[in-house]
């Protein structure tokens, strides 16, 4: 089943409170700006941003069942519950909404954790999620400033803020985020040599 963008907006916005939908709109807008700025695909950025939080407000039990019943990454069951919605979003977008583009699906799948070897689209969606206009957290202005000239530097600052927050709270850090951050730092070093 193929859906139009308007239909997808209706489907996705219907699965979350109005405040979170406003966040999604902010991520869509920001992802398109970043795609323009850094030579990414604007249409894919818009679509991945539209879909990225589709499962965010599903009850945790539903998310856990979705992971178990469909053979999705079982590691997610052992980590912060907030990580599951990204993988589920990609799965549902493909199975139920007919999204086949692997780049879009991966950008949804890795928007919270990041991954090693992030694509430009992965970076755009992940960064847009950190800096959309509705976001307010300590350090967001610095990330916005860095995003004026470097996707990678801004994203490292974003991951650093998440990692610092988790350290401060004594929480477990999903290891892929540390690997993503390290990978981006290597990438930045490589580009400066
Ligand atoms: N790498 C990670 N390891 C562990 N928990 C994480 C990680 N990334 C995000 N989280 C948890 O998920 C929460 C929300 O992350 P995020 O997807 O950015 O959600 P939101 O869009 O609601 O801010 C964080 O506050 C944190 O508790």
Automatic annotation (TrEMBL):
<keyword id="KW-0408">Iron</keyword>
<dbReference type="InterPro" id="IPR051094">
    <property type="entry name" value="Diverse_Catalytic_Enzymes"/>
</dbReference>
<keyword id="KW-0378">Hydrolase</keyword>
<keyword id="KW-0547">Nucleotide-binding</keyword>
<dbReference type="InterPro" id="IPR003607">
    <property type="entry name" value="HD/PDEase_dom"/>
</dbReference>
<protein>
    <recommendedName>
        <fullName>bis(5'-nucleosyl)-tetraphosphatase (symmetrical)</fullName>
        <ecNumber>3.6.1.41</ecNumber>
    </recommendedName>
</protein>
<feature type="domain" description="HD">
    <location>
        <begin position="20"/>
        <end position="134"/>
    </location>
</feature>
<keyword id="KW-0479">Metal-binding</keyword>
<dbReference type="InterPro" id="IPR005249">
    <property type="entry name" value="YqeK"/>
</dbReference>
<dbReference type="InterPro" id="IPR006674">
    <property type="entry name" value="HD_domain"/>
</dbReference>
<dbReference type="Pfam" id="PF01966">
    <property type="entry name" value="HD"/>
</dbReference>
């Amino acid at each position: 089943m193929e859906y139009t963008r308007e239909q997808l907006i209706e489907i996705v916005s219907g699965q979350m409170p109005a405040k979170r939908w406003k966040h999604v709109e902010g991520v869509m807008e920001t992802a398109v700006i970043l795609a323009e700025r850094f030579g990414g695909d604007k249409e894919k950025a818009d679509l991945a941003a539209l879909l990225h939080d589709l499962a965010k407000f599903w009850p945790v039990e539903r998310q856990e069942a979705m992971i178990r019943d469909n053979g999705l990454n079982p590691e997610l069951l052992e980590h912060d519950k907030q990580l599951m919605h990204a993988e589920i979003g990609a799965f549902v977008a493909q199975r139920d909404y007919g999204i086949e583009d692997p780049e879009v699906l991966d950008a949804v799948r890795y928007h919270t954790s990041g991954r090693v070897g992030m694509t430009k689209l992965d970076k755009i969606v992940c960064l847009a999620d950190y800096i959309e206009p509705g976001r307010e957290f300590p350090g967001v202005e610095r990330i916005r400033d860095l995003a004026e000239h470097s996707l990678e530097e801004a994203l490292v600052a974003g991951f650093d803020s998440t990692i610092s927050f988790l350290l401060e709270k004594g929480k477990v850090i999903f290891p892929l985020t540390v690997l993503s951050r390290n990978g981006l730092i290597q990438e930045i070093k490589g580009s400066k040599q």
